[in-house]
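Exercise 3.2. Students should predict the tertiary structure of the chain below and write it as structure tokens, then compare their answer with the key that follows.

Predict this chain's 3D structure.
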Amino acid sequence: MTHKRYKILLVLGVLFCLAKTFGQNPIIQTRYTADPAPMVYHDTVFLYTSHDQPDAVGFKMTDWLLYTSTDMVNWTDRGTVASLKDFKWAGKNGAWAPQVIRRNGKFYMYCPIHLGGIGVLISNSPTGHL
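Answer key:
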């Protein structure tokens, strides 16, 4: 891991702690999200999240979202990066805590599905096209 990437991850960790402590200025203000999973690639922070629907009773999580930033102040909403529809065996609810890992030029998105298992999607790009 390069020194610059380490600094970005360290700052991101501090920002998450401050957001939790003070509850001010959350990164995501327009949707119900949980389980943030950051990944740094080419000086960009890719923040993958689970997504709870506003009409949920309990929880209604059917997809995963992506936000990106090059300065950790300004964030771009990249929308839905994957959904339960990507897995024929998945039910209609339970898209939980994702994580994306880069290995050998590919991006592997690990998608825990409540009471179903862990699905894996593979892409050439961190923005999806999974």
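Discussion points: The chain has one domain: 27-123. The CA atoms of residues 28 and 38 lie 13 Å apart.
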